[in-house]
Fold:
Amino acid sequence: MRSFHRPEGRTADTTQPRLESSLSQRLGRRPTAASRRPEDPPIRRDKSVTRPSRDGFEIRNASDPLLKSTRPSEDGRRPTPIVPRVSVDQDVEQRVLQRPPVELIHSRPQPQPAPKIQVTQQRVFIGDMQRFNTVEITPNTNAGDVIALIASQGSLDHTAGWMLFELANDFGMERPIRSYELLSDVTASWNKDKLLNAFVVKRTYLAPFLSRSNIPTSSPINRGYVEYESKKGKWSKRWMELREHSLWLAKRDTGKDEIFLCSLSNFDAYYMTRKHKSPKPFVFAIKSTDNVSLFENVSDYVHILSCNQKDGERWMEAILVARSYVLFQERHVLFAKSGESTSISNNLSRSQTRKQSISARPSQPLVSVSAPFSTSANTVAFEPGSLLAKHKGDIMS
Structure:
C-alpha cells in the first residue's frame, strides 16, 4: 500500500520558519543612523548566505570569518606593557642635559670711560678793559690758578698784590675773588642773558688780608653808624654791627630794636663802580653770591651802605675777612690740597674689633657707678633744715 506519511515532512516544517526569518533579516530595511542609539553596537552585514541544515543549525561558507568564541581568552590575563609618554619639555631638557658642557670665556674687564670734564673759554681782562687773555676754565679752576696761568704767559710782573676781581656790571660793583674760590661758583650767580659780567686782574692792598695763610681763628667783629639805603634814594642813619658771621641793623646803639640784615654764608662785600648819590663819600654794598632768581624781592639781594672813607675801608676789610672765615669753616673742600681726600669717613674710621671670649672679660665693671638712690642713713637727699628732710629723718628713726 502506498503510505501517505512523508518521512522528511517534519523536518521541513521545522526548518521553514527559521528560513523565513533569515530571509526576512536579509531583506529587512537597514536602520538609519539617526534612529540608532549611541549604546547600540553597529550592525555588520555579512555577504555570506546561510542555509538550513538537517540539525537545524545554520551553515556558513568556508570563506566567512570564524565566529568569535564567548570563552574568555588568556590574552586578557597577560599584563599589557605600558609605554611611558614623554612630554615635549622633558624631551628638550634631556637633549640639553646630553649636550657637552660649554667652557665659559671670561671676558676681560673693559676700562670705564673717563668722565667728560666741561671746559669753557673765558676772557680775563688785565688792568682795564683794553686787553685780555683767554683761559680755559673747568669746574675745579680757582682764582689762584688763573693768576698763575696769566703770569706764566708773561702778562703780569712778578710783584705781589695781584688778585682776580669779579665785575658785576649789571649792578655796577666789583669785589676781589680769593685765590681758593672756584670760578664756576662765581659765574653761577651771573645772569646769562645780559653777558655784562667779567673777570679782571688788578693789583690791590687786600691781597695779603685775603690770602689763605691769613685766615683768622675766629670771626672778626665791628660796629658803628652808617647810612643805609632802605629805598632807592632814601637814606637812614642806622647802627650796624658785625657779629656771629652776620650783619645787624638798629636805630640806636643800644640794639633794642635791631633787625637781621644778612648772613655772610651767602653774602659778600662789594665796591661800587658806578657813581651813586649818597650822603657820605664812601659807598659799598653787601650783595648775595647766589643767583638773583632765588630772591622774590631785589631789595633783599643787594644792600647799599655809605660812610666816610676811613670807616668804609675798615668795614670792607672786616666783612671780607669774616667771609673768608665762613668759607673756611663751611666749605673746607676749597682748602683741600690736590690728591687729599676731604671725606669725613677717612678721618673718622672705626677701629678693628677683636674677638674675646666671655671668660677673658673682666668680672668687675671698669667704672664704678654709685646707685642713684643710696640706702645709707647718712645721705640726705633734701636740703638740710627743710620740711622734707625732717620728715625723712622721722621715718628713718
Summary: The mean pLDDT is 74. The chain has seven helices and 14 strands. The two ends are 168 Å apart (CA to CA). The first helix runs from residue 9 to 27.
